[in-house]
Amino acid sequence: MSGEVKGLRPIKIEDLLQRTVYDVDEEPHIEIIDERGVPKELVKLCPCSCYSMVGERLLYSYEGCLECGLCRVLSEPWGLRWEYPKSGRGVQYRFT
Amino acid sequence: MRIVVGIKWVPNTQAVRFDPKTGTLIRAGVPSIVNPHDFPAIELALRLRDNYGGEVIAISMAPPGAIQGLEHVLGMGADKAVLLTDRKFAGADTLATSYVLAKGIEKISREIGPVDLAIFGHETIDSSTAHIGAQVASWLGWPYVYYVRDAKLVGDGVIRALRQTEKAVEEYDIKLPAVLATAIKALKPRPVRLSYKLRAKLEKPIIIWTNDDLGLDPRCTGLKGSPTIVANITWMPEVPRKKIVYKPKDPRDAARWILRQLFTDEAVAPFLRKALWGEE
Amino acid sequence: MSNSNVPSKFDVVVVGAGPAGSSAAYLLAKAGFKVLIVERGRGAGTKELYGGKIYAPPLREVWPNLDKEAPIHRWVTTERLSFVWKGRVTTLDFKLGRRVAFTTYLTEMAKWMADKAVEAGAVLVDEVRVDEIITEGGKVIGIRSGPDKLYADIVVDAEGVNRILLEKLGLAEKINPDTVALGVKEVINVGKKAIEERLLLTENEGMAWLLMGDITQGIPGGGFIYTMKDTIALGLVLHIGKAYEAAKSGALKDTVPMMLEKLRVHPYFSRIWRDADVLEYGAHMTIEGGLRYMPKKLYMNGLVVVGDAAGLLLNTGYTIRGVDFAVYSGKLAAEAIIKAFENGGPTEENLSLYEHMLKQSFVYKELVKHSGIVKMMEDPTFFTKLPAIVNGMMGKLFEADYEEPTVLEALLESFREEEMSLTRFLLKMFSVVSRL
Ligand SMILES: Cc1cc2nc3c(=O)[nH]c(=O)nc-3n(C[C@H](O)[C@H](O)[C@H](O)COP(=O)(O)OP(=O)(O)OC[C@H]3O[C@@H](n4cnc5c(N)ncnc54)[C@H](O)[C@@H]3O)c2cc1C
Ligand code: SF4
What is the structure's pLDDT at C4? Predict the structure, then answer.
């Protein structure tokens, strides 16, 4: 298409999350209890790509979590321990 | 026991980005936080108070914005907070900062009650000097132990500080009053509690002292009292990094694969061989 | 430790310092109640993320000085709707006749609202997560956070869309993925001058721009662009139930953040922010169908539920109205609580006034009026065919080499290409519209 803006490339999620402020808690606020109750589709759907497949296993890291609640909605209650972070920690939105 | 714990209000460095175009740090809109390495110090102070009674007083030399951070510490259970704030304190290096803090601690001793122990974090995330604890101890003339992981009272007026070095755990028995600095991540901090935070909001137990209260010679505070000269800063060049994702089914394959990568890498392999087998 | 003068009971405890909680707290504190707001974030607003546009009139009923005092970025003077399909874009551009809505950051706006409540005498305790609403003999008596309990004559639940506390209390079911949408958003640092030049705005004039089409890769939802003072908010809203199906069937190619990034570098739209950096990225959930999201009860002995937690949000696909609905529900709750105390206390019977007032208000009427839209939003015809057909027709009309078709020819041709008959399409649209 004409008029394309040169040099604009999608930013990778790791770089995108660099722009968001966090005060990460030492303790995770979300934990996979039973993988069978957590859908693999979260690898695509989680907005911070916190979920990833390593081999057959679904792994989760909480540091980039945007606290949207999507994974809680899509998982079984026994699949995830899902809480908001304590002490004001976690994502710190500024211009949203 | 009256314990003072030092707090620094620092920009959240995770959020500070480097602008490769201008070579400067983008700090605009970056919120401040309580220096993460201060939390083990706060936790140690609270534990000692919980075990032996007394009170914990958080102290900070900072602009008034730091009240938010002091409230956080009060929310964790500190009893009082002292904010030392004055334009004359601005631009201080560690020497001028530690001087003001030491004078603040002396004033607490005179007016609130004798201070038995002052605890600081290992270092700050925005300047990484690890000077403050040692310097405050020097100003006060108190003994000082750093890299502390835990402490307890043994006998009258004697504290035993556990210090971990690379190879050993050392125990120091020192007479109070004393200064300790904790090691990074030595203790996991407790969360903010509703009842404590509510008390902080209602009773506002934050005492604010300016230089009119401290009466310090302005030549010893702030920029004027700071002999440190930052001659030059060289930013580390961004090293372009290669990223390979390898996702085998079996983790043992992953281990083999990593080893193969490392041992076939011209830059890494010699170091590995030397470290493992002393090969030149 | 001396816990001397700290009360263990308040008249009112509000959970959440969002628009709903802060408006209720403000009005109750002004009426002389002892109000405590408990907020999990570090200060009000730090956990807030939305699109970008707020309808002013309901807010003015709570804060008459809104226009002068609130952190308003721009008044919306232009509304745009674009159909996006395979590189083609058709845009409707509407210049408003009067000012009804403004753009702002919800982070700023929520802080302003909470400050107002504190000025009026409410106490705001931040950095504290409420873990439970506690009951005794079927009556709400207060809240628990960690080991601490705090008692209140009435609790106002304003916890927002993730209503964990209501679920624990048994007042709301586990969230059905078909009733919620995921919003992702970037804030782009375009600069005041560039925004105004590139979007033909003057100072203080703002634009709300909604996008439909293949940017959501077949998932019901859309995109949004809002102009702030010197940044632009760019985002996507995606139906969660359908997004899950698309991911499961393999129809979804990209991750959600990549979908948004592809929109940011879209050849047509990216020229607006071509040289600007992304300042912030975030996500938040919102409600897809308000009435379906509503909990079993909006009140009980000692409790009222307001804002998103109560499902009081209008999502028409072209507009999300949540903030003004939340504020208004907070206002109605405050009024009902004041009345209830005049009549003997916040009993279930006295608080039923809240629901009654809500049903009389524009909030509920709008939700009922637009309930048909929920069906439409789940219908792929609307989200994929419409943008395809519109752009197909425009392509036929304006990309002709020699012979130009008539409008009707172009329309029929593009319908045929999308394997849809005009009558079926019209019937479908009619059935949807009749439900609106
Ligand atoms: C992508 C997107 C776009 C949107 N666009 C618009 C728009 O353009 N215009 C518009 O008007 N609306 C829009 N909305 C909707 C709007 O954001 C919400 O309707 C509105 O914020 C609801 O207000 P609330 O006070 O009910 O809840 P929230 O704003 O969510 O506030 C809830 C508060 O409670 C706190 N909280 C939650 N749980 C606890 C707990 N356990 N303990 C203590 N505190 C707690 C939270 O931290 C938060 O501060 C949008 C929403 C999304 C997601
Ligand atoms: S809450 Fe949202 S951002 Fe956090 S892990 Fe779950 S899906 Fe990802």
Answer: 56
* Cβ within 8 Å of residue A4, ≥6 positions away: C267
- In angstroms, the CA B200 to CA C127 distance is 12
DSSP string, A28-81: -SEEES-GGGS-TTHHHHSTT--EEEETTEEEE--TT-----HHHHHS-TTTEE
pLDDT of residue C184: 98
In Å, how far are B50, B76, B274, C330 from B118, measured between CA atoms? 16, 18, 45, 47
| ipTM here | 0.94
pLDDT above 50: residue A2: no
Which residue among C323, C327, C366 has the greatest number of ligand 1 atoms within 8 angstroms of its CB, and so is best to mutate? Answer: C323
pLDDT tens sequence across B177-231 = 999 999 999 999 999 999 999 999 999 899 999 999 999 999 999 999 999 988 8
- Which of C125, C144, C230, C279 best tests the B interface by mutation, with the highest count of B CBs <10 A? C125
| Domains defined for chain A, CATH in brackets | 26-92 (3.30.70.20)
The arithmetic mean of pLDDT across residues A15-33, rounded, is 94
Residue C337: name the closest of C11, C7, C36 by CA.
C11
Show the domains of chain B with their CATH numbers: 2-220 (3.40.50.620), 237-280 (no CATH)
Kind and range of the H or E run holding A91:
strand A90-92
Contact C5 B202 (CB under 8 A): yes
